[in-house]
Known about the structure:
The protein is 16% helix and 31% strand.
Amino acid sequence: MARKAAPLGPATAGQKRKAPSLCPLAAARARVPPPPASGWASLPTDLTLLVACRVLAADVVDYIAFRGACSGWRVCTPSPRDPTLRQRHLRPRGWVALCGGDAVRPDDAGEVTFLHTRTARCLRVSLPELRRYRVVGFTDGLLILLHKRDTTVRVLHPFTRVAVDLPPLGPAYHEVVRNRISMLGMRAAVCDASAAATIAVVVWFPWTPGVLSAVPFGQVWEVIHKDMELLNTLPFQGRLYGFLRLTTKIVQVYPPNPLGPVVAHVPDKFGRPCHCEYHLVESGRDMLLVVQHENVKREGTEPWQCYAFAMFRVDISDRWRLFPVISLGNQALFLHMDRCLSVSAKDLPSIRSNSVYFSVFLPDHVVLHSLSDRSFERPTMLCQVHNMKERIRPSVRPFTIADHLLTYCSHREWARGLMFHEYNGVPRCFDNLWKKIRAQDSQLRIPRTIRGDTNGKDNFLYKINYVSSVHKE
Length: 473
């Protein structure tokens, strides 16, 4: 039977009002907090810092990737961007720049491919700012650049993009160098500044005596050595060492030594300096001295089989004592007059351990010498593209890691975008290639020094300071 609807009007006298038929409201539920984060992102700060320190000790590029993996990790770890570029543990040590081999300069390409010698990992880094500069040197993975228009010098960290600028070299060129070919072949290295918590850049020029240095925010380049021609150099522990041209003398280039630049001599038992080549190599945490000399007991009749090598570990803390080294173990050395390199064959299996890769002045330039069995090989014999007269075959690809490492040691070929084993000596018949090289070199413009007439004398707008403590031999 249907229930009668209650009257809509007000209740009459003596009629009882019915209670509302709605259900009572349920109590509001308390908001449940989200579950705590789990996994690696929830690491405590102290453990995150511990992991970050170990990653940074291995490689700064891995440390940058570590901070980019999680916002929490990025907040609680220090930034890898060092505005002074002085902290060596924040430099990309162990990374070497590869060459494309297509005659395209890195500054024209606006990018550089880097190889990590301990993991064989490659990274192509876009650096559009390179198009205004020439690459004139490397130190601990840092790029040293020369501006093509105003000759200012810049030190660039390729992975953090931190840049440190130095004064122009134009005035120093007109005062000291005065040779455009020497300017095109200039070399540079980064050292620790002796008087401030910053870096110093040291530059020198082939076929021109004189070494200059400058610090960031400085106004001048200082001539620290007037009569010094360098061949092989090595930045080591914040200092710069090298060999004087056609001598057996090891010199401390920067900072200037108050007792004189010569710090050691190579033993004379290896023959005349004009018949030897001397190299300084950083291997691990040690400095190695490698002497390439003529072998009296020849192992064969070929010209490249007349060489022998003597190696010493240099203890710079004990009056530059030399300790003979018989074996390199898992290491392999790449030797050139521009720079030398030591890599582990354990990390790069295609490299032969306990061996030396070097070059000779022959149509086939690269020679591999094994210190274990004293054998010689020509690993690029079938990759020769010319016979110094004409092209005999196209470029053989892909290049090996050994090809890239030896090209990295030869800065002239690397800066031109050419592989060392193919173009260490470009024949004159390669007209198009030479035309391209000249066009690229013409991009470097050295501005004229502005002069002002004061009391009848010409005063340079930029002054070149000569250090009073320059030492002569």
